[in-house]
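re: ur question from earlier - yeah i can do the single chain one, its not a big deal. heres the input i used so u can compare w yours
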Amino acid sequence: MSVKNDVTLADLDLFEAGPPWSTFDALRSENPVHWDVEPEPNHGFWSITRYHDIVDVLRDTETFSSEKGTVNLEELDEEQMRVRKSMLETDGERHRALRKLMQSQFTPRALAGYETFLRGLTASTLDAAFAKGEFDFVADVAADFPIRVLARMLDVPDMDIPQLIAWGNRMVGNTDPEHADVLASDPESEKYRMLPFRSPAALEVWAYGDELRRQREGRDGTDLVSKLVNETPMDGKPLSDDDFHAYFLLLVVAGNETTRHTISHTMNNLIDHPDQLRRLQEDPSLIPWAVEEFLRFASPVYHFRRTATRDVELHGTQIREGDKVVTWFASGNRDDAVFPDPYVFDITRKPNEHMAFGRGGPHMCLGNSLARLEITIMFEDLISRIDYVERTGPVERLRSNFVNGIKRFPVRVQLR
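and the output i got, formated as tokens:
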């Protein structure tokens, strides 16, 4: 494929059937720093599609800042940036302080204490799904499992889980007519311009978090909310109300989305590659490493965005101060300069330095160890119990160029 000058990754139609792999391939080959036109009021952005260029951008936080906007394509004025600023939209000392506040909760050592709980939860989730024979893999497995882990870490009751899932769908799905209260592209969304994702669901998440904060302030709880409420970041600057709202909302959304969609894509990919499924069934010890290929092939988050703080040249292309610079992780994960035969699903691929969680730089996903543990335990149990699995209907995808999501995925399972 030869890329056309007028191609734009802002076009959601490009993503209707899944990632536009041929477009990414052409951009990496012909135009690795590509200008994408956007509808007004946005001003366009530079797409970075090669693996090593993405790493360079993510590491150079002085030139490519997270401070000047959101991680997605929306352009914010100063008031919006102040109110909506989360850990993802900070750099430097403040970012390190906010990250440190939760970092100890997501280390492999800390997460080891959850393993028994995770194995029990996995078994009960699969028991309930398998008892149906035919079921929606997303609703009954992929969405249900990680959100229950998050509920445990937040110390909230299981009865709240459907609401947590619904909030995430409404916010992350802000470009999908099925999920969005108001589409981000709709002029009506201007009423919600001060809210993350321009979604009124954010107000409900904030109110829910505020009630948890009221209950736990001044107590000795060890859950994530108690940590946010009762500890001061290492820079000595307490969390403001806006800081708490942004951090809590980030936990609700990010604590679910990457793992959920990776589990969905992986099951779909194993159906398409039965030889790889058989190999895992014959040798389950391969699963922990296979998780890296699960993540690379899934690429659950398409991109993150930075903003140039100065004029800079990349591959002979001049990027101006203030320009949006978008790093396409999905494209980097198919870069044949890094991954030989990148479209081959190979559970033994080594090395496998994928960028499903970002790659390099200070913003690498804080929850990557938890996601890996959840995915490993899920497929260790699932693969040991099934003889085969088949789709019974179409795979329905989220309309988005930010999250590579699957909404519905009906399957039939034959147990061993």
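The chain has one domain: 12-415. not sure if urs matches, ping me
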